[in-house]
Amino acid sequence: MEQHAHQPDFGLVAANLSEIATHLSRCAHLPAVDGGARLAERMDLMMEQLAGLRQTVQQGFTDLGQRMGTLDRKVTASNKNFTARTRNSVVTHRTVDLSPLCNAITAEPIEGFPRKLGDLESLSIRQVDALLRELGEPVQGSADDRRRWLKYAVGVTTQVV
After folding, report:
1. What's the rounded Cα separation, in Å, for the pair 38 and 44?
2. Over the stretch 53-80, which tens digit does the pLDDT of each residue have?
3. Integer Cα distance of 155 and 157 in angstroms
4. b/e string for 39-78 if b means 16 or more Cβ within 10 A?
5. Looking at the record's lineage, which domain of life comes first (predicted)?
6. Residues sharing a CB contact under 8 Å with residue 94, sequence separation 6 or more, in sequence order
7. Which residue, among 84, 79, 68, 76, has the nearest Cα to 131 in the 3D structure?
8. Which residues of the chain have pLDDT under 50?
C-alpha cells in the first residue's frame, strides 16, 4: 500500500505540462528568445522613417534656398527700379533720357528699354504690354490705359505738353 501512495497523478502532470507549455510559448515574444528579430524589424522601420524624414528636410532646405534666391532677385529688381523710377520722375520732355528699368523677376536690365520719353510714347501696344509684363504690372484696360500705366510704372508722372 505504501507504494500505492506514491503513484503519479497524471491529471496533475498533464495540467502542469500544459501550463508550462503556455508560458514557454509566451517566451517567443522576448527579444532574447526570438534572436532579436522583432527588435531588428523595429530598428529597420525606424531607420526607414529617419531616411524619409531626412529626405523631407533636405527637400525643404532646397526649396527654401530657391525661394530665398527668388526673393533676393525680386528685392534687387525692386531696389534698382525704385532708383530708376526716381530718376525718371523728373523727365518732362520727349527728348530727355530715361533710366532703364529691370525685369521684376530676374533683376536683369530689360532689353530694348526705350532710351527717351519720346521712344516710350512711340511703342506699339504689343511692346507696351511686353514691358508691363517684364515690370510685373497688370496688362489690362484699353490701349490708352495701358500706355498711361506704363508711364507710371516707368516713373514718368509729370510731362510738359
Report:
1. 10
2. 999 999 999 999 999 999 999 999 999 9
3. 6
4. eeeeeeeeeeeeeeeeeeeeeeeeeeeeeeeeeebeeebe
5. Eukaryota
6. 116, 117, 118, 121
7. 84
8. none
